[in-house]
Design brief:
This protein is mostly beta strands. The chain has one domain: UDP N-Acetylglucosamine Acyltransferase, domain 1 (3 Solenoid). Helices cover 9% and strands 29% of the residues. The chain is globular, with a radius of gyration of 17 Å.
């Protein structure tokens, strides 16, 4: 197999019925994206092996210069947005909705919505967010610009910008450098995209 054959072609991507799709998109052929009519993908995006993205009830928006590594799971049925220059390491799981674990409601997608409960709400990853391998992100929160989340962390609350977070649940450890903003400007300028 040639390396080029492992990714969907531009023609394939156009025919999948995405809400919108940019240029220079590399999606491995073993990625599952469901309800593509609710999925928008920007430019310069790569989605690697065995990732699953579900957009059954709301929009899933993936910005520019985004990387989603292998074996990630994005349950975006209540909305998900991943802004420019952000990335997910292997095995990250993001949930915009969850079941009610109290026993007061039924659970799972085979049951009509009126019988199930749980927390639901859009998950937003602002620009320059990076999430480490095996981390879990729960519903109804925003991860602020420039945040890095360590591997195996549990994100159960909104995270303030430009911090390094780690733990179960996550705690802010320190500030994160903003030097990457200079590199972003340089890169965009070089591409003729800086305004």
């Amino acid at each position: 197999m040639h390396i080029g054959e492992r990714f969907y072609s531009d023609e394939d991507l156009k025919n999948f019925g995405f809400k919108s799709i940019g240029k220079n998109i590399k999606i491995k052929k073993n990625v599952g994206i469901f309800f593509t009519e609710n999925v928008s993908i920007g430019n310069n995006v790569r989605i690697d092996d065995f990732t699953i993205i579900v957009a059954s009830g709301s929009d899933v928006i993936i910005g520019n210069n985004v990387h989603i590594a292998a074996n990630c799971y994005i349950a975006g049925s209540d909305g998900f947005e991943m802004k420019d220059f952000s990335g997910l390491a292997p095995g990250v799981m993001i949930f915009s909705g969850s079941d009610d674990y109290s026993g007061k409601k039924l659970t799972n997608p085979t049951i009509p919505k009126k019988y199930i409960g749980g927390i639901c709400g859009k998950v937003t990853l602002e620009k320059h967010v990076i999430i480490g391998a095996g981390a879990v992100v729960l519903p109804k929160l925003t991860i602020g610009e420039g945040v890095s989340v360590g591997a195996l962390s549990l994100v159960n609350k909104t995270l303030k910008p430009w911090g390094v977070y780690f733990g179960m649940p996550v705690k802010r450890l320190r500030e994160r450098s903003r030097e990457m903003l200079v590199l972003e400007h340089e890169y965009l300028n070089e591409q003729g995209l800086d305004f």
